[in-house]
Specification:
Layout lengths: L1 H20 L3 E13 L7 E14 L2 E11 L7 E12 L3 E8 L12 E9 L6 E6 L1 E9 L3 E10 L10 H4 L3 E11 L2 E12 L2 E15 L2 E10 L2 E15 L2 E11 L20 H4 L9 E12 L5 E12 L3 E15 L3 E12 L4 E14 L4 E14 L2 E14 L3 E10 L10 E11 L4 E10 L2 E5 L2 E5 L2 E11 L1
Antiparallel strand pairs: 1-2, 1-28, 2-3, 3-4, 4-5, 5-8, 6-7, 8-9, 9-10, 10-11, 11-12, 12-13, 13-14, 14-15, 15-16, 16-17, 17-18, 18-19, 19-20, 20-21, 21-22, 22-23, 23-24, 24-25, 25-28, 26-27
Length: 481
Amino acid sequence: MKNKIVFAAVVMLLLCCTNRGFAQFYGSNILETQYGKLPTDTINFGTAYDRALLGYTYKRFTAGVTLENYYTRYEERNYTQFTQYSLKYNSNILDVSLGNFNETIGRGILLRSFEIPGAILEDQGFRSRNYFFRDVQGVTAKLKLKDFTTKVIWGKPLNNVFPPNQDNAIRRIDEIKAIYSDYTFKKQTLGASFLALDNDKGNSNYSMITLSGVLSPKINYYTEIANDLDNAATHAYYGNINFTFDNLGITAEVKDYNNFLLGSGFNEVPALIKEHSYRVLNRSTHVVQPINESGYQIEVYYTFPDSSVLTLNNALAKNDLDKEYIFQEYFAEYSFSIAAHHDFKLFLDYAQDPFKDQTDRLSTGIYADWKIAEKSSIKTEYEFQYFNRGGINVQNQLLTLGYAFQSKWVFSLVSELSNDPFLTNKSWKTWFGGNLKYQINNENSLQLFAGQRRGGPACNAGNCYEVLDYEGVELRWTTRF
């Protein structure tokens, strides 16, 4: 292990030193250390996670490599791995990528890759930590002509449930071959895709047709339908239409999925559920079930003459599994300013969530950003949530008090309160923690957390994952060069 740490340190030193000599190098690094424990741990202990990314650009070529490290007192959780490497060629008519790359077909129904900036995963089972991304390892090429594009993909998508200390054969059990082409005419684009999947369960083939375009300066649309070529009952359909009339905007979306979870889960069908920034709502986000789900989402926003904005959203998801589940949510948000520089947001949300066994879930809250001087502001936030589960009334509350100076110093205290019997066998459980962020310069920032952090589901950019409860101290240094 000592040799691996020394090797990683030497690589990091070389990356930093090389940057000073050659401007065509670029990179970034995240170093996070913790000392504390999860609720299930018996002792406090220290951990260190580091992710370094180095890239080099020469004319039309780009090369990159990513090194991840994780070390604790528990040897079986530790690793030093080059988790990504790539060589890319880009021109006006041809793009080629070798190694690790991100690729999405359509809106993700057949294939979706992603990387959530700054998100570090820790699985309750493996208790190792790794960056939150899902890429493809292989080769892809894209040909771009005036009205016609086509791309081919061969590779093995990552199953990010398994951390880098697991064998690569387990982390990438699926092999895919895919081709996507589209043609644009009179502001309309028609596309067609084919994907072949090979894994230990056998072979399967899928096709997809997409159609999108502009109907008028105020109306545009997108639709795609995919199915299993060997089983017509296995299908996925998604469509949306958008209207924009001066200060009014309307978006309507529909979905219909049946048995469309491909391989280890390298595809991701559109959820059509609003992803909230408010924490009590973000933890309650309905996770789409590609095995069987249909429904819709409608969102309307209106900008008033004083620049305040009203947003209304309604979503419905119906799952026909061992029994029928119908999720419904109604959300309203009003954002406005007072005296041109004090910013406020109010929200109200009502939902029925039989999947989580939450009846009559009501959530509300207020966010305020008070400018107290030319370069300082006080940020306050209060959120309240109530629902009934099996005859028991459950409450969740959150209060945040924060202060920011010149966007260079940001400090906040966060307290949470819950009587959810899933989380505590006492009448109430509390969490209290403090956060401090210092922006050293444009390239470096430090973030310090101390106290207790409530875990639970978290959703970001359409991807949901589990955040574990934590108690202790955490320091993160982010740099780019």
